[in-house]
Amino acid sequence: MKLRRFKHDLGLKLMALYTLFVGPVVVSILLIANSTQTHLEENIKAADLALARSIAQETDLAMRNAMTAVRGLKTYPSVIDSNPDNMKLLFSTVMSARPDIDLVYRLDPQGFMLFHYPMGPNSTIGNDFSSQEYFQRTQITTKPIISKGYISPTTNQPITTAAISLWDSEANFLGAIATDIELEALSQTLVKISQEYDPEECFEVVTVDSNNQIVAHPNTDKLLQQIPESLSNITEPLLLGRADTIISTDENGIERLYSYVPISSAGWGVIVSRPTAKAFAIPRTFFRGSLIALTIFSIIGIFFWISLTQLVIQPLGNIAAYSHTIGQKEPATQIQKDTLVSIATQPDQMGRLARSLIRMEEAIESRLNELSTLLQTSASVVSSLDHEIVLNRILEQVEYLMNVKMSAIVALDEKKGFFRVQASRGISKQFADQIAINPGDSYSVTLEALRRSAPFQVNDIEKSMFFHDVGDEGYRSILTIPLNTQYAPQSALLIFRPDPHTFTLQEIDLLSNFANHATMAIENAALYARSDMRLQEQTRRIEALIQSINDGIIFEGSDGRVIYANRRISDLTNLTLTEITGAKINTVFEHIIEKANHPDEARENICLALESHGEQETEIELYFQGRTIWLRLYTFNVTDTNGMPIGQGQLLNDITAYHELDRMKSNLISAVSHELRTPLASIKGYASTLLADDVEWDIESQQEFLSIISDEADQLSTLVSELLDLSRIEAGKLTVKRQLCHLEDIVNFAAQRAVPKPNQRLRVNIPDDLAPIYVDRRRMEVVLRNLIENAAKYAGDQSPIFIKASFDEENVIIQVKDEGPGIPDNERQNIFDCFHNTDKSLTNPVSGSGLGLAICQGFVQAHGGDIWLEPKEQGACFTITLPYHPTEG
After folding, report:
1. I want to staple 70 with a disulfide (CB 3.0 to 4.6 A). Which of 117, 164, 674, 833 is the partner?
2. Residue 844 pLDDT more than 60?
3. Residues 549-554: what's their mean pLDDT?
4. Highest mean pLDDT of the ranges 553-562, 818-827, 861-870
């Protein structure tokens, strides 16, 4: 109920809007004030921490300089040897450079004074320093140290000592060298810093040592005093090497801001503090000022809301209540009418709004009548796709609403080339048939409106010297409204009146709405015709796509008969698509099973898949078109848009390539393992023989064994190179680097590298007038070497090997042939396949990896040439053609 009231009450909405405006402002001011206060406080903390860090860095520099000084003194021979004369000069130089140093002295291994400067009986008291904490620490470290603060027995002033141990080359402790540093010198910087702050701020900065003693303070009377126990939460993390800023209570119960930073070189720390009341005075004053400003803003907002309610919300509520009675067609009360009249007398915008409402009430009745008619027209448009019926209904509504008796809709008859009447009301059939407007007529009202793409009227045809339309039906004025069609011929709405009449803008706008409805009716009819044609075309394209794919597709209905099949199924079954359509699915598959290598197994697997009525897969091995292929049968349910099953589908996918890939993988593993095992066994055997401890081989035997190892290693290298070349060929990344070469040189080099060598069996016949060829020399050497090796391996020891070359205008022709047993007919079509070897015996000493001819074919084709096996009754003959003058690049 409250939500409904909120939706219909502008006052509540404005209250919510006012709250949404004021609320974020108030929250924003509070957040900004709080954020600013926090930011300022963080800046103050950061400033104090930066000051503490600066003091710590300066003190750390002084302590490091002191440690650097004693570290430097340690290196002088006079200090190590305790030479008084030299130490006097050295120590005096140090003190003159460092005014903060009170005393420089040398201690022996027992802690007794050997020498000190300044000299004299009053410069130091006592000679035994063995009990001093810093001397005991020097005995266990070689690094310089800084002692805790203490009172000098000589000057009775607070000091600290920088000391370092002395050791000889045999690590014997020789004593220590030390300097006493006046702590008052460290306090001078703190005095200057404290003077920059108002004493009322109670600003305090101190430096403490590892025993929580004050070693630097603006007030030197506080030196070597202990830090209060109440600040242990500061001194403990400080002496552990941490830096931070915290708020804590001092020994007097005053809340203070503490910033502390460690001095790493001495194990000391710097503490900067001041009362939070003084430190955060500005941020807290700003926050209080923000609260005061927020209070003033709230008071002004309340006054604004009261004024808004009296001047706007209440009058708007009265106007809304009156407009509600108009919308509900309820009679307004006298009080509501008097209130609206009173508001309408005001000269401001509220008065104009009330006067507009009164005028609107008068216009609503006529507009409702127009709207009702337009709604009926809209219903007519969507009620039928027969545009003649719809157009007649539209003209009927125009006649009713505009009080006209004659109207028509004309459209271009594209076949006849004239504008003809498509629908009419109030005109005779003779006049309607007579209307045939030539598109070239320059004096037609209809064509003028179409040319302007806007309504056009003639208020009196008899007085018009230019514009007219054919026929005489007793009309005097005419209005033409173009129909903005995109997919249908040009059309227009014509309104006739029997008297001279000028159509008002309101009448033209209303008739334009009717024209839009007529446009929609014509467009709907045109689009429906187009969509039907496109649907048929799309169906033909989808069917052509399914028919063109290489996979077989069958759709069967719920009765188990084939509804649809593509051409691939026709090829597999040797049945026409007409014979397949309507046949039982089992009958169709029987024609496929007839070609199976294992019919019973195929029939069983297919029946299980078809009877599962779901997603199933099985494989079928067929002998088809002279070769063995493998098909994967995948069955699936076919459902309509609501998910209801309407049949089943079968997809026959050719997976022969995958089986061939598996075969190639197996051949690769078998061939590579065999080809690697044989040379590796020889290398391992002869290497082990050479390494045997119980036999000494002569030089000739060693050379023989090493030669065998080298040959076997070359064989391994050749195999790896062949595998790499094959991978480049199959990946399509093989590139050739052509250069001009003599074919005879390539043949000779290939024959020399062949294993086994052809020796005297090789007969080469190359024409003397054969020009250099443009090829990749290394690749062509591999091609010819592989062909020579194959002939030498398989043709027999007595068979000659012939290499013959010839050329024509376009190609160089190379033939490599022998007179051996040749290649069986059933092997010829697979001779260039990877890992194919006509000799299946892995134990045959001349068996190969089956890669040579595949690589030969890849190299030759990369040159733009071809290689094939010539048909021959005895022996084998391989022919190569290469472009004689290829285009470079």
Report:
1. 164
2. no
3. 82
4. 861-870
Q: Which helix (H) or strand (E) holds 562?
A: strand 562-565
When the pLDDT of each residue in the chain is averaged and rounded to a whole number, the result is 79
Q: 563 or 721, which is more confident?
A: 563
Between CA 586 and CA 731 the distance in angstroms is 43
Read off the pTM: 0.38
> What's the average model confidence in pLDDT over 356-360?
72
Residue carrying the six token digits 């054919």: 470
CA gap 311, 808 in Å, rounded: 108
Say whether pLDDT at 233 is over 80: yes
> Which DSSP helix (H) or strand (E) runs through 731?
helix 699-731
Over residues 122-140, mean pLDDT: 80
CB 787 within 8 A of CB 856: yes
> What one-character-per-residue DSSP string does 574-631 give?
T--HHHHTTSBHHHHHHHHHTTBSSHHHHHHHHHHHHHT-S-EEEEEEEEETTEEEEE
pLDDT digits (tens, 9 = 90+) for 587-601: 888 888 888 888 888
For the packed helices 10-74 and 281-308, what is the interaxial angle rounded to 10 degrees?
A: 170
* DSSP state string for 249-294: E-TTS-EEEEEEEEETTTTEEEEEEEEHHHHTHHHHHHHHHHHHHH
Asked whether the predicted pLDDT for residue 677 surpasses 90, the reply is no
Q: What is the pLDDT of residue 882?
A: 92
* SS3 category, 650: strand
Give phi and psi for 337, each to the nearest 5: -65, -45
Interhelix angle 349-383/314-327, nearest 10 degrees = 30
* Amino acid, single-letter form, for residue 704: E
Q: For residue 678, what pLDDT is reported?
A: 62
* pLDDT (tens digit per residue) in 746-773: 999 888 888 888 888 899 999 988 889 9
pLDDT above 90 coverage of the chain, percent: 7
The Cα-based distances of 213 to 48, 94, 148, 224 in angstroms read: 21, 28, 8, 5
Tell me how far apart the alpha carbons of residues 703 and 617 are, in angstroms, rounded to a whole number: 62
Residue 395's CB is within 10 A of a number of other CB atoms, namely 25
Q: Which tokens go with 554? A: 């069958």
Answer whether 385's CB lies under 8 Å from 374's CB: no
Contact status, residue 469 vs residue 433, Cβ threshold 8 Å: no
CB crowding 93-121: b at 16 or more within 10 Å, else e: ebbeebebbbbbbbbbeebeeebbbeeee
Distance CA 235, CA 260 (A): 8
Three-state secondary structure call for residue 663: helix
Secondary structure E strands in 727-844: 739-741, 762-765, 773-775, 801-807, 811-818
Distance, in Å, from the CA atom of 880 to the CA atom of 814, rounded to the nearest integer, reads 5
In whole angstroms, give the CA distance from residue 186 to residue 213: 14
The SS3 of residue 797 is coil
Give pLDDT, residue 671: 55
- Location of structure tokens 């064994």: 705
Angle at alpha carbon of residue 278, lines to 272 and 282, rounded to 5°: 115
Q: Does residue 122 sit in helix, strand or coil?
A: coil
486, 523 Cβ separation under 8 angstroms: yes
